[in-house]
Q: What sequence folds into this?
């Protein structure tokens, strides 16, 4: 799967499915992105805990092999570097929904269409699998909430999820109808 979109600052974004050998790229982007994304929302201890919990190579492999997540990488073909990633699952909880589990863009590339390219690729796969809705969780204080609303997502509920060590994920559940 390749999606090419012309952009202003990033002339070409290529979205491809990540291979197991590319998991360290996803891990590095997460470590480069999370402090910027969550530094004003979560404690440094919680960021470290969550990165270890979700982004160790074994955790990433488990998400693919056991949880059925598909990881995508976004590459700036002009600069020949990876600038973001997403993961998703079609037919989430045996419903006609695709769940966007993760989507992160390097801070220097945010606002340049990379997130839209990744979501477009997920939407194409969701449609091919007969899914009628995209769903995702986002921290209630994350600036990305406005981005999701701008592209058609709406808040449908809130969740407070205990994740261990006394930490919580305090999220909005957002959905977007497809088609």
A:
């Amino acid at each position: 799967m390749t999606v090419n979109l012309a952009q202003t600052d990033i002339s070409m974004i290529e979205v491809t499915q990540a291979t197991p050998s590319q998991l360290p790229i996803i891990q590095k982007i997460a470590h480069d992105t999370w402090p910027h994304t969550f530094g004003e929302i979560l404690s440094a201890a919680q960021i470290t805990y969550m990165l270890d919990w979700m982004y160790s190579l074994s955790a990433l492999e488990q998400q693919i092999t056991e949880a059925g997540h598909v990881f995508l990488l976004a590459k700036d073909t002009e600069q020949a570097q990876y600038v973001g990633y997403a993961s998703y699952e079609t037919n989430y909880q045996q419903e006609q929904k695709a769940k966007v589990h993760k989507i992160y863009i390097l801070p220097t590339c945010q606002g340049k269409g990379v997130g839209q390219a990744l979501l477009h690729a997920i939407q194409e796969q969701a449609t091919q699998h007969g899914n009628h809705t995209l769903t995702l969780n986002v921290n209630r204080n994350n600036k990305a909430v406005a981005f999701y609303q701008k592209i058609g997502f709406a808040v449908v509920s809130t969740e407070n999820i205990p994740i261990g060590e006394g930490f919580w994920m305090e999220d909005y559940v957002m959905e977007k109808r497809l088609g």
Summary: Residues 38 and 135 are 21 Å apart (CA to CA). The first helix runs from residue 23 to 38. The two ends are 20 Å apart (CA to CA).
